[in-house]
Structures are given as C-alpha cells and as structure tokens.
Design brief:
Helix content: 55-70%
Number of helices: 3
Strand content: under 5%
Number of strands: 0
Low-confidence stretches: none
Structural class: mainly alpha
Length: 115
C-alpha cells in the first residue's frame, strides 16, 4: 500500500514539475539584471584585488632577491590594475530614456520660413 501511495505521489510531483511557469514580470527582469550587474562588478573587484596582491608578492620577491645580492633579471611589465570603483547600477530603460528624448527632439520638423 505504501509503495502505491509513494508511486502516485511521485507521478503527481513529476506532473507538477513539468508545468510551464509564467513569464517573469518586468520587475523580476529588472531585479535579475541588477543582480547580474552586481555579480559582474563583484568579479571585477575580485580581479582587482587579485592583481594588487600579485603585484605586492612580486615586489616582495624582487626586494628579497635584491637584498640577497641576486639579479632579478628582466622585469616583465604587466598591465596596470584597473580599479572598478564603487558599484553604480543604471537600469537599461533609464539609460536609453534620455537618448530617446534627444532623438525625438532632433526629429521634430523645422519651422517653416515666412517669406
């Protein structure tokens, strides 16, 4: 009896899992976009911190070699660490609204000349 009930429960659960979910609302899409932007910024911050720590370790290594009287050899120039700054999120709709207003203003017809 328990086996039949567990099988029935699994069938109902499987049917519920295959149900189609409704499309996300605009608010949910905006929150997802902001979360993606925060994640991307967090990745940039982590890359910056890693870059700074690599530079620090390399400088300590060169100083240690110099102190022991050994030549560090040719120093390889690496790109400078780019600080991503503070997180600032500008929603895509808000960013395109001023551009749309400017485009609408420039598309207005010119006044006719009276002559």
């Amino acid at each position: 009896m328990k086996r039949i009930l567990s099988t029935a429960a699994l069938c109902l659960l499987g049917t519920a899992l295959h149900a189609k979910l409704p499309a996300p609302s605009d608010e949910a899409k905006a929150k997802a976009a902001e979360a993606a932007a925060k994640t991307a910024h967090g990745t940039k911050v982590a890359d910056f911190q890693l870059c700074k720590s690599r530079e620090k370790v390399a400088d300590q290594y060169r100083a240690q070699l110099k102190k022991s009287g050994k030549d560090a050899g040719a120093v390889v120039d690496t790109p400078a660490c780019a600080d991503p700054g503070a997180f600032v999120y500008v929603p895509p709709a808000a960013a395109s609204a001023p551009a749309a207003a400017t485009a609408a203003a420039s598309a207005a017809p010119a006044p006719a000349k009276k002559g």
